[in-house]
Amino acid sequence: MVSAPPAGARAQAKTLFDLTDQVALVVGAGAGGLGEQAALALAGHGATVAVADLEPNLATLQGIASSCGPGSTAHAVDVTSEQSVRALGDAVVASHGRIDIVVNAAGVMLRRAFDETSVEDFERVVRVNLTGAWLVGREFGARMRAAGGGRLVLVTTVYAERVGPVPESAYYASKAGVANLTRSLAAELGRDGVTVNCLAPAVFYPTAMTAPLAGDPGQLAWFAERTMLGRLGDPTRDFAGPLLLLASPASAYMTGQVVYVDGGWSAW
Ligand SMILES: NC(=O)c1ccc[n+]([C@@H]2O[C@H](COP(=O)([O-])OP(=O)(O)OC[C@H]3O[C@@H](n4cnc5c(N)ncnc54)[C@H](O)[C@@H]3O)[C@@H](O)[C@H]2O)c1
To answer: What is the pTM of this model?
Structure first.
C-alpha cells in the first residue's frame, strides 16, 4: 500500500505551478502562435503578463494582453536590435516593477536549399533565432540575476540536434545554437538562482509558421506519422503544460535542459 505523503509535501504540491505575484514576459506572441499559448497559460496560473512582438503586430498583441487579464501589457520589440531589446527591458520593469519569467518564442523559418540561400537570408534567420535569443537572454538574465532569481525559457525545435527532410539549413543551424546557448546561459546564471531551459517542439500545427503546410497535406501526414503518438502537436493543447513546468517553481532543480515536446519524435 502507498502511504500518504506528509502534509508539507501536499501543501507544496499545490503551489508547484502557482505564479501568483509573478511577472512574466513572452516575446514573440504577436502572431497568435505558441507565444500566445504561453502567455495565456502563464496568466491562467496567476502571473501578470507582458507580451512583445514586432511593431506591426501590436494590435494583435494588445488583444492577447487583454485576454491575459487586468494589468497585462503589450510592447513592440525587434529582437535583432540590441537597443530595442534594452528598451523592452526598461518598459517591462517600468510597467510592472519586476520581471520573474521570460519566454522567448520569437523566431523565423526559411525553407530553402543550401545553395539557393543567400548570405543575407542565412544571416537574417540566425540574427532573429540565435542573436535574438542571446540578446533577450542577456538583457533579462542580467535583470533576474540582479533581482536574485528567475526563469528563462527559450524555444528551439525537435531539430536542435538532428535535421528533417526539408531543406532549412539556416533554421537548423540557428536552432542548434539556441540549445547550446541555453546550456551556456544556465551555466553562467545558475549560482544566481536563474534557471535557463528550452522547449524543443516538433511540428505544431497550425501557427503562422506552419500554416503554409496546409498546401502540402502529404508532408503534414508524414510529420504526424513520424511521431510515436501519430499526430501533430496542437498549439492550443500540447504546449502549455511543458511551458508551465519550465516557468514555474515545479522546475526549481532543472536548468540547462532541452525539453522535447514532440510526441516521441526524438525517441525513435
Ligand atoms: N510551430 C511549430 O511547429 C514549431 C516547431 C518547432 C519550433 N517552433 C518555434 O516556436 C517559436 C514560435 O513559433 P510559432 O510556430 O508560434 O510561429 P509564429 O510565427 O506564430 O511565432 C513567431 C513569432 O516571432 C515573431 N518575430 C519574428 N521576428 C521577430 C523579431 N525580429 N522580433 C520580435 N519578434 C519577432 C513573429 O512576429 C511571430 O509572432 C519559434 O521560435 C519557432 O521556431 C515552432
So the answer is: 0.97
